[in-house]
Design goal:
mainly alpha, single chain, 2% strand
């Protein structure tokens, strides 16, 4: 870490969070608008699943979720719920990988000075919740397997909360929130690959890696292959990606890992190192346009529908759930651990690097973003499926905890952000000033 420069005056010291380029701000704004729609659909799907699972027609819900379909010799005779978790979520993680690569290769986060604070904040937002969960359940070793449940952020759910409360959250904080969510989703994928893989089948894994290499070779040189345009290239790459997913699934590693690995092979820059402009067709742009509606409108809501459906068992069932150390640990980790980990790591990193908080903001704003990051829905539900057997009571209790913690974190974040909304509106109005009329707000043209 770079030590603070004592020779710098406060006005010369770098500030956090950085506003970034205008092009990146526009792109992130458009991305978050799409995610807000997906977040609303996710919440609706989850509510339908919960209501149906606790209705007089609950048997039909569980019969549908557990209905098996697929080719057994290829280890693909799976329940619909498993297809949603292993198959559809691979699309979601493909987009996570694509966004992360784009940010670190061609986005504002390609500079270490810009990336270091949000990346370390994301790491703190993973480590502290895990430690809090372990501290609460450590007396029962069987429960320690769920330590990774409260580590991830659901950006779609968080952005849906922002849209609902009408927050004018400043662009730098929105970019900070998106970076937190993408990085800790990547950390969660790494955790799944390392800690939730019981046995690896070597041959399918090697075949999967070979297929991913073929996929990447075509993706990197798609213009030379049959003079393919992006719209045609994805039709060829899609079946290859499905084959890679099937091999990774058969290897014993969670198949969503294939989505991230495939995304990392998609080119974001031209071969000479120049960034592919947003107006120029490229695979990264083509794939994002084609797969994001599928992810936000189909894949994630269907997963939420099948995964969130928990038979609560009435008052007695809720009493049992909320007395379970798993439930207490997850709620405490998400609602307290996430904001504490993010706020503390951000403060320590800014102090160590001699960076000042943007004078237009206060640390309570970072705490509000940290609470939004405590909405750990999609990936937390996925890790629950991997942590506890479906027949284990802790499995359903963990899902109850995720739902309760996500709602509680959303409510607490809303209190903070609504109270600060008047300040955010003034910042937004000042940031929109374009005195020279060149179409770019003046604030993005200052040194």
């Amino acid at each position: 870490m770079t030590a603070p420069d004592p020779a710098r005056t406060p006005s010369e010291r770098p500030r956090f969070p950085r506003r970034g380029s205008y092009a990146e701000t526009l792109r992130i704004g458009e991305l978050l608008r799409k995610e807000s729609v997906g977040g609303a659909m996710l919440v609706v799907a989850a509510v339908i699943g919960i209501v149906w699972a606790n209705s007089p027609w609950a048997d039909a819900y569980f019969t549908l979720r557990d209905f098996r379909i697929g080719y057994e010799p290829w280890h693909l005779n799976l329940s619909l719920g498993t297809w949603a978790a292993d198959g559809l979520l691979a699309i979601f993680f493909f987009l996570v990988g694509l966004e992360l690569k784009r940010e670190f290769v061609a986005g504002d986060l390609r500079r270490f000075s810009t990336a270091v604070i949000p990346v370390l904040a994301a790491a703190g937002g993973v480590a502290v919740p895990a430690l809090i969960y372990v501290a609460i359940v450590w007396q029962d070793p069987a429960l320690l397997r769920g330590w990774a449940i409260p580590t991830a952020t659901d950006i779609a759910f968080a952005v849906a909360v922002l849209a609902l409360i009408g927050s004018h959250l400043p662009s730098p904080l929105r970019i900070f929130l998106l970076t937190l969510a993408v990085v800790d989703d990547l950390i969660a994928i790494g955790i799944i690959a390392i800690f939730y893989t019981a046995e690896i089948q070597v041959l399918p894994l090697l075949l999967g890696l070979l297929t991913i290499a073929v996929y990447g070779g075509i993706a990197q040189r798609y213009r030379q292959f049959f003079r393919l345009k992006p719209a045609a290239a994805w039709l060829i790459l899609l079946p290859i990606g499905i084959v890679a997913w099937a091999f990774v699934h058969a290897s014993g590693i969670h198949a969503t890992i294939a989505g991230v690995l495939l995304a990392f092979t998609i080119p974001v820059k031209h071969r000479r190192g120049r960034q592919i402009p947003d107006g120029t067709p490229g695979l990264a742009i083509e794939f994002e346009h084609r797969f994001r509606p599928i992810s936000t409108g189909v894949a994630v809501p269907i997963f939420a529908f099948f995964s969130a459906g928990v038979a609560l068992g009435g008052i007695e069932g809720l009493r049992s759930a909320f007395s379970d150390p798993v439930t207490i640990g997850i709620i405490a980790a998400l609602v307290l651990g996430k904001p504490i980990g993010i706020l503390l790591t951000t403060w320590l990193t800014t102090r160590a690097r001699g960076v000042d908080l943007d004078p237009e903001l206060k640390w309570i704003d970072i705490a509000g973003v940290g609470l939004l990051a405590g909405i750990g829905f999609t990936v937390s539900l996925l890790v629950t499926e991997l942590s506890f057997d479906a027949a284990d009571a802790h499995h359903d209790h963990a899902k109850v905890a995720i739902l309760a913690a996500s709602v509680l974190a959303a409510v607490l974040a809303s209190f903070i952000l609504v109270a600060r909304n008047r300040r955010y509106r003034r910042i937004a109005e000042a940031d929109a000033v374009d005195a020279d009329g060149d179409g770019v707000p003046d604030v993005y043209e200052r040194p």
